[in-house]
Amino acid sequence: MLEELPLQLGVAPFGLVFGILGIESGLSPIQTICLSLILFGGASQIVFAQLIAAATPFGIILSSVTMINLRHLLYGLSMASYLHKLPLYWRVLLAYLLTDEAYAVSIRRFSQQPPSRYMHFHLLGTGLTLHLFWQASTIIGVLIGQTLPNMLSLGFVIPLTFIAIIAPIIKRQSELIAAGCATATVFLTYELPWNLWLILAALSGIAGGLIAEKLKEKGRAG
Amino acid sequence: MDSMMLWGLILTCGLFTFLTRFLPLAGLLPEKLPPVIERAMHYVPVAVLTPIIIYSIFLPTEEVALFNNMRIPAALLALVATVVTGRVIVTIVVGMASLWALEYLF
Prior knowledge:
Number of helices of chain B: 5
Largest sheet of chain A: none
Number of strands of chain A: 0
Low-confidence stretches of chain A: 1-8
Radius of gyration of chain A: 19 Å
Number of helices of chain A: 11
Radius of gyration of chain B: 20 Å
Low-confidence stretches of chain B: none
Largest sheet of chain B: none
Number of strands of chain B: 0
Oligomer: heterodimer
Distance between the termini of chain A: 27 Å
Strand content of chain B: under 5%
Shape of chain A: globular
Strand content of chain A: under 5%
Distance between the termini of chain B: 38 Å
Helix content of chain A: over 70%
Largest interface: A-B, 96 and 70 residues
Mean pLDDT of chain B: 92
């Protein structure tokens, strides 16, 4: 699933959408652009904008954003053996540029072709290209966002974008159950304060998926 | 949230996000995470993005809206478009066009 996630994301339309939504959610143009520069992670930026628009407390936004970005740990771990000998400044730079898309493209290069002294330039090139596209499309989105009227229901682009990301990665029963648990939790908890529904639904989705997986394994073993 | 706090939040989120990327490359983590953590992470995208989809469709005004809510059919059409084409941009265009058309018609 993690390997297929990136291929579903068109970077430019996604950046455009984020730029527009950042403005709609009440962030200033500079804040919207800086989020793209500093976070450089599409889904987490969109969640940030949505939670800001819904007046969510600091800690909830921080934990939501971090949870979404935890997948980078897996990317980093699978890249570490190829990159751990590089000087620190290289690893800082490459870490900053490590995204779903860059990972997907570069890990293929690293694992399929013989190692070379300069192979990290592949990740640098991919990362910088994506970075450039991401910043440029955010800026264009910000400019569009400032001119569009509010009545166009543009916020609806958020669920649409996320449907396009997750529909293709729900393949196993346990993933469907994870989505089901998360959905049920939204309806049970949406009235709680501080937008707690998001964290609770995410935790119940993860738990649901893990339990479904375990039960299936047990069924197979017994 | 005032502007200073918002900047603080942007920077803190940025720092935490950078750490998720840098810690494995810094050699500060074990080479393999515990299997249960790795399995749990497999479900993070679905578990985080699904509730946002559901909330944005069914609770557009922070109240559950099941009737006269054109976001529901529009999202279903967008889902069909995703399954058929697998392209983000097609999903967005179909979904937005359906929403505008349905809200205009009904």
